[in-house]
Amino acid sequence: MNSLKSSKSQRQRQSKRSKGAVSVEFAICVPVLFSLLFGCYEIARANMMHHAAQSAAYEGARVGIIPGATDEEIREASNFLLTSVGVTVFNVNVQNGISADGVEQVTVEIEVPFDENFRMGTFFVTDPTFRGQCTLNRESL
Fold first, then answer.
1. Contact in structure between 109 and 93 (CB atoms under 8 Å)
2. Do residues 114 and 52 lie in contact, with contact meaning Cβ atoms separated by under 8 Å?
3. Buried b (16+ CB within 10 A) or exposed e, 70-96
4. Bridge-partner residues for 94, per DSSP?
5. What pTM did the predictor assign?
6. Which ranges constitute the DSSP H helices of the chain?
7. Are 123 and 39 a contacting pair, CB within 8 Å?
8. How far is CA 88 from CA 51, 62, 111, 113, in A?
9. Which residues is 97 bridged to in the sheet?
10. Can you tell me the distance from the alpha carbon of 141 to that of 66, in angstroms, rounded to the nearest whole number?
C-alpha cells in the first residue's frame, strides 16, 4: 500500500511539473507566433499598397494618353483603382509635357503613405511612403 501512495504522489508531482513546462513553453512561443503573424500581415499589406500605387499610375496614364482626356479624368481613374483595394489616403500628381523628341507625354505620379492607410502601427516597413510613376506618350489622331 505504501508503494502505491508514493507512486501516486510521484505522478502528481510530475503532472504539476509538466503543467509548469507547458505554461513556460506557451509564454515563450505565443509572442513569437503573434510577431510572425502580424509581420506577415503588415508586409503583405505593404506589398499590396506598393502594387496598387504602380497600377493606379499606369491606369491613370492610360486614360491620359487618349486625346481630349483631362487631368480630372486621370485622377478619377487612379482614385477608382486605389479605393477599390482599400487605400484611402493618397496623392495623385499629373504632369503633361513634351519629351526631347517633341512627343507629348503624360506622367502620373502617385504617393501612398503607408502609416496613414494601415490600421495597426507599423513595425517592419522602413519607408512609409510608396510611390508609383508611369509616363506614356499621347496618342495622336
1. yes
2. no
3. ebeebbebbbebbeeeebeebebebee
4. 108
5. 0.74
6. 2-64, 71-84, 114-117
7. yes
8. 15, 22, 12, 10
9. 105
10. 10
> What whole-number distance in Å separates Cα of residue 104 and Cα of residue 102?
7
Q: Are 132 and 110 in contact (CB under 8 A)?
A: yes
Question: What is the residue whose three cell numbers read 512561443?
Answer: 29
d(C-alpha 41, C-alpha 118), whole Å: 11
Q: Tens digit of pLDDT per residue, the chain (141 long)?
A: 555 555 666 666 566 566 677 888 889 999 999 989 988 888 888 899 999 999 999 999 999 999 888 899 999 999 999 999 989 999 999 998 876 677 789 999 999 998 888 777 666 666 688 999 999 998 876
All 3 cell numbers of residue 71? 487631368
**Separation between Cα atoms, residue 128 and residue 108, nearest integer Å:** 20
Query: What cell numbers appear for 83 in the block?
Result: 479605393
Q: How far is CA 3 from the centre of its chain?
A: 64
pLDDT confidence of residue 21? 78
CB 138 within 8 A of CB 65: yes
